Amino acid sequence: MPALMPDNPGRDAEKRTDAMTFKRALFHWLPVGAYCLLIFIQSSLPSPVSTRAVPLGDKLLHLAGYALLGALFFQALRASRPTAPRRVIWRLSALAAALYGATDELHQAFVPTRSGDLLDLAADAVGALLGAGLAAWIAARTARPTRGNHRLTNLRSSYK
User: Fold this and answer.
1) Mean pLDDT, all residues of the chain
2) Which tens digit of pLDDT belongs to each residue from 76-125?
């Protein structure tokens, strides 16, 4: 048998698929990890300048920050599990971002000049829900129709 033929072509294709899957997962999960690290670092520093000039300014910052984290989780989970229902991905994304918010508030309880706050946690959770929800809504609006779920396809099949 010639040396150019692979011993097991199916196994080589499987290895290539695994490598592509890993690269794709890394591409989508790296922003989540980087943003979580950024939140951790920022939470480890002394309290920033007061946001008292804007009513509830601190809570709005928490809401916006965790909305971004919820959206990043949605993108990463959606890429990792493309066949999972969007509503499941949305719920898991919001839950993951809110749980990270809870660990962040716990972490802040041990940082000098910082304190964990239940209202901050509530703002984190609401932001996570809104961010993941917005990402899910955008994904639904921009999704390409697949075979069998397009309106015209269903309309045509009803006349057969």
Assistant:
1) 83
2) 999 988 889 999 999 999 999 999 999 999 999 999 888 888 999 999 99
For the chain, how many structural domains are there in total?
1
C-alpha to C-alpha distance for 133 and 73, rounded to whole angstroms: 11
74/99 Cα distance (integer angstroms): 14
Distance CA 84, CA 80 (A): 9
Q: Is residue 106 part of a domain?
A: yes
Q: Which domain holds residue 129?
A: 11-143
Q: Choose among 1, 107, 123, 11: nearest CA to 58.
A: 123
In a domain, 158, yes or no: no
63, part of any domain = yes
CA separation, residue 66 to residues 6, 35, 140 (Å): 49, 10, 21
Give the residue from 30, 55, 61 showing the smallest Cα distance to 43.
Answer: 61
**What is the separation of C-alpha 99 from the centre of its chain, rounded to a whole number of angstroms?**
12
Examine residue 138 and state whether it is found in any structural domain, yes or no.
yes
Q: What is the pTM of this model?
A: 0.76
